[in-house]
Structure formats: structure tokens, C-alpha cells
Amino acid sequence: MRVLKTKRFLKDYRNLPPPLQARVDAKLALLANDISYPSLRVKHLRSAPGVHEGRVNDSCRFLFSITADAYVLLRVGPHDILDTL
What we know:
Layout: E1 2-5, H1 7-14, H2 18-33, E2 43-44, E3 52-55, E4 60-66, E5 70-78
């Protein structure tokens, strides 16, 4: 499935350190191929219907929504980005 990046996601991404950006890139490649890949730990957000959370590492998450043909990336960053939707 395609992975689309919003302007807000790209802004968040640019603020990450390069090693973490590389890790995000790897996780997004996994997402594009298999949303149920175990290390992604994808789950629905109860506080935001239609939004899903994926894990980059212990302290970094990415948020996305799902359309008919794409994953739309909304945010990426520390776990507290969940509070900024």
C-alpha cells in the first residue's frame, strides 16, 4: 500500500535527529509491506477515531490514518504527540 506524508508529518520528521529519521524510514517501509508486522505494534487510538499509532522505538511513535489505497502519515515524534491531535 502507498504511504503518503502530510506537511505536518514532514515538519515533525525534519526535527528528528538523523539516526532516528533512518529508523522511521525503516519502520515506514515495514508498514507499507505489512501493517501487522510485530515490531510496529499498530493499534487504534481510542481518543481519535480513525487514527492509528505505530511504534518506531520505546520513545517515538507515528500516527496515521488509512484510506482505501494509502496510509496517510499525520505525525511522528515522542510519545506525547498523541496529546497534540
